[in-house]
Amino acid sequence: MSLVPKKPAAGVDNTARRTWDKDEFREKAREREKQEEDKDGEGPMDARKRKRLERDPLHQGMIVERSQLKQRDYQIDLAARLGKTQVVGLNMPLSQQAGYYCSVCDCILRDSQSYLDHINGKWHNRALGMTMRVERSTVDQVRKKLEEVKEAKKAGNKDEDYLPDGIDKRILEAQQAEEREREERKQRKLEKKAKEREKEREEEADGMDPDMMALMGFGGFGGGKK
Where in the numbering of this chain does the U1-type domain appear (predicted)? Predict the structure, then answer.
């Protein structure tokens, strides 16, 4: 009986890291973008640029020159929909979907930080007809502002009457009234629970033997007359 040597098993060399041809995949990406552009007539960047120009009042001929950046004359309420339940569907308009809706740019932002970045950004302010340059205050304007603050202090305005950042006093009063109502509801619930516990104790005391209660050291629960 002759011994025939076995052939070595063919193995797979998986010790080396797989390499990718970046130029090949880059070319495939260009071809895919070109096909989408030929199909739709414009690429995604062109569509975004077109929409921005459609919202820009300068390119639409509504204004001749952009104004400088101005302070908002309204208060941003980021917590207006906090704690509320909302039904969201795929076919609903953007203004009714979950998130923060910008009516100027007709877009939805998913969180408050993105919304603040958007309304403070260049394209949103361009749609409002403003540049990102801030008007430089003169010495006379600074003096006038300081005089207004001094006059407001002399007039005897209370701290609660002076609200920074354009906060409406009615909104603050409504929030305070809501807090008071919440505290009153909480207090009523606590009183109701205390009465229920007192009633349960009285019922238990009525059902127990007085001699047994005296033996156990209970002199009563304070519900009877002395």
Answer: 97-131
